[in-house]
Amino acid sequence: xxxxxxxxxxxxxxxxxxxxxxxxxxxxxxxxxxxxxxxxxxxxxxxxxxxxxxxxxxxxxxxxxxxxxxxxxxxxxxxxxxxxxxxxxxxxxxxxxxxxxxxxxxxxxxxxxxxxxxxxxxxxxxxxxxxxxxxxxxxxxxxxxxxxxxxxxxxxxxxxxxxxxxxxxxxxxxxxxxxxxxxxxxxxxxxxxxxxxxxxxxxxxxxxxxxxxxxxxxxxxxxxxxxxxxxxxxxxxxxxxxxxxxxxxxxxxxxxxxxxxxxxxxxx
Length: 268
Prior knowledge:
Helix content is 49%, strand content 9%. By secondary structure, it is α/β, with parallel strands linked by helices. The chain has one domain: Leucine-rich repeat, LRR (right-handed beta-alpha superhelix) (Alpha-Beta Horseshoe). The protein has an 8-stranded parallel beta sheet, with no helix packed on it. It is found in: Cytoplasm, Cytoskeleton.
């Protein structure tokens, strides 16, 4: 291919991107996704094609169209669709697409009102998908759907980063996830901030840290751990040698935690 042809191709692809973005502004999601799919099929996607989705305002119907594209696409590796009002149904169809997609390694689907049923759908996807390594599901009101996600971690061996902060998962979700950490050998980063664990939830995570040898980055800030939860974690830190950073902001613990591990940074 000569340089003139290459320049012409790049110009055509940029025109397609501009046209696709204009369709999204008009809420003509299906047509826009067809254009992006044409770009992706030619292995000519740019970082903008992957990260600008957080401003697309997809909604539920747009989510379904995007799911269809993911089932057919074999080039996209990173997708950010934060704050798109997908809802439970949009989340379900997207989760189903993740079961079939074999290239996506990074997915941010935060702030999309997925709800408990959407959480269950993504739990099912994690049981079947062996490609995804990064998943962010914060601010989705998952509630009891978090328990299903925790159970999925016992079966998934590829996900290394999970952010499920601010989902009202509570004590039961925390217990389920801490149990999963005892049997998961892939996850290295977990953000469980603002999920109302309480002192008993803190004790459950402390027990997991005594057994888990993979987790390096753990965020338990804003979880009402209190002094009892803090004491349990303090004891666990003397047995854990792999954690490198632990966030414990705003937990009313009442004392500064310490560890024998010189590589561990505790932020509280």
